[in-house]
Amino acid sequence: MRLVVVSAGLSVPSSTRLLGDRLAAATAERTDAEVQVVELRDLAVEIAHHLTNGFPGPRLSSALDAVTAADGLIVVTPVFSASYSGLFKSFFDVLDRDALAGKPVLVAATGGTARHSLVLEHALRPLFAYLRAIVVPTAVYAASEDWGAEGLAGRVERAAGELAGLMGGLRGDLRGGASESVSESVSESVSESASESESELTSASSSEPVLRGTGAALPDVVPFAQQLAALSPSRGA
């Protein structure tokens, strides 16, 4: 199996790269995956050229191929302006739109304060859901004060275990037979819904109205004018 880490860190050394390495090491312990790291800092110029002329350079092309062929993906970005970095987004903008379909992805981010931790749920998770990736339940955020803290190690281990489980259980299935099974399940659900709707319409058109889902007959409805006449004193009394 192949595990690819996409790191959008800009500094050297980079806490973003460090978090990506820790997640990759924890995942590799649970799988037989070979780890490859894609440093977006080194690809910035080629990414910009690809956005303007539509042609990837050799290093960018190799990185895109690695991400497309990976069995699992770890993506890590620093937080810029309460979201992922522009370099991070640009890389996935030039990636083929179907490259991540059905691929297990672990999302992670680094920042100077814990106040930006919701970037994982408000920015990263929606992005990869749009790309039809399978995002692991546990996302990992590391603020400056988290390094060396016990909580970060626990989150790393939990997220790595979830990614390893998806890589082992869904390898080769999501882009093959499983997608057909999902389609069949959807078709069956639609057919069942149509049958239920037809049954309800048939019940509604019968001579005796029936309460939906209960089988009990509706009570007789007496017009208001008839009820009022019954309450009024008889004429000539």
TrEMBL record:
Its EC number is 1.-.-.-. Transmembrane segments: none annotated. Residues 1-147 form the NADPH-dependent FMN reductase-like domain. Keywords: Flavoprotein, FMN, Oxidoreductase. SUPFAM superfamilies: Flavoproteins. It holds the Pfam family FMN_red. The keyword Flavoprotein applies. GO terms for molecular function: oxidoreductase activity. The keyword Transmembrane helix does not apply. It is an enzyme of class 1 (oxidoreductase). Residues 176-208 have a biased composition (Low complexity). Residues 175-212 are annotated as: Disordered. NCBIfam families: LLM_duo_CE1759. This is CE1759 family FMN reductase. It comes from Streptomyces bluensis.
